[in-house]
Give the backbone structure.
Amino acid sequence: MPSVTFKSVTKRYGEFVALRDLDIEIGDREFLVFVGPSGCGKTTTLRLLAGLDSVTAGDIYIGDRRVNELASRDRDIAMVFQSYALYPHMTVYDNMAFSLEIQGLGRGDIQQRVQRAAQQMGLEDLLHRKPKELSGGQRQRVAVCRAILRNPAVFLMDEPLSNLDAQLRVQARAEISRLHRELESTFVYVTHDQVEAMTMGTRIAILNQGVLQQIDTPQAIYSAPKNKFVAGFIGSPAMNFFDGVLVEMADQLWFKSDALSLPLPPTTSAQYQRYISQRVICGIRPEDIHDARYLPPSIVTAPLKGTITHTESMGHEVIVYLALGDGQSCAARVDRRSTLALGDRVELAVNTHVLHLFNSHTEEAIS
Ligand SMILES: Nc1ncnc2c1ncn2[C@@H]1O[C@H](COP(=O)(O)OP(=O)(O)OP(=O)(O)O)[C@@H](O)[C@H]1O
Ligand SMILES: [Mg+2]
């Protein structure tokens, strides 16, 4: 039984459609991550589920109960907001203990649970402070702790880690994933950080302008994005896109643009047949463009010529930016031993077995 269901849910603010016809089933104990650019409707979705806003059309179910008219407090959810909403006059301890007191737990029990949660989130030294005496990241962690302590059926988290520094973020990410495994509750998590989405989600739902683009496992979304938007949104640096034509020469299909000539794997020719002589978009992930001197074993490649305009050495890899003949630029993630340098005219190697083709008009993946 799915624990949360959206059925054709639409939310309008006046004329503006913040969420359009959303259909999603979130499984019991799933960790579903909503991602998408700013303003795409992520917070709106959570607010509707939390009962802080009402739907314009459609139905929301928690378990098999329709909750459209159910008050927020009766939905058995806990929400960590983008703007954490702590009680300013209470200490960290009291902020965390509050919901347990309402539940009528004994003093000793409350103390034990608060201590344990505080320890998990690295807050044990801050329990006596007031929210205004905390950094943004510390406040966020208090808000996460407070939600954990309520132990609801469904956790809703809206960018709970956005104020943490890089190192704490990595820690807190692992911590929240662990909590999810331990608590056996359903998590609905909002972020615009794709690393969080990829590493934490059992599935990812990608929204754009209030419309669900794709929902699937992180791996499936990365390797088989349904459209150009998803392909460009997930992955960093973003996928490179080239406008061109699909042509057939001597029983071989090619993608051709001004800068590129890529033979397509014979295994894919059936699926591309009806696009022969038509304009298509070819997507190539930066990690599928290699320094020809450091090729992974047994891949099939085609050359890509250009001039290096910028390099970023990341330690474990080098990102190089390339100006191609036609004025287009593209990014490649090459081996860390690579010595490609600014101004070099180079011939890189494109792995032709992992190309992504999109219909030029609809921008849907061709598969
Ligand atoms: N009360 C409101 N009245 C009018 N428009 C609203 C209201 N709340 C949200 N919106 C609009 O709805 C759209 C979706 O907002 P939402 O807060 O869901 O975005 P988001 O995906 O959470 O973005 P962010 O990543 O910036 O937090 C935005 O364009 C926003 O301006
Ligand atoms: Mg938001």
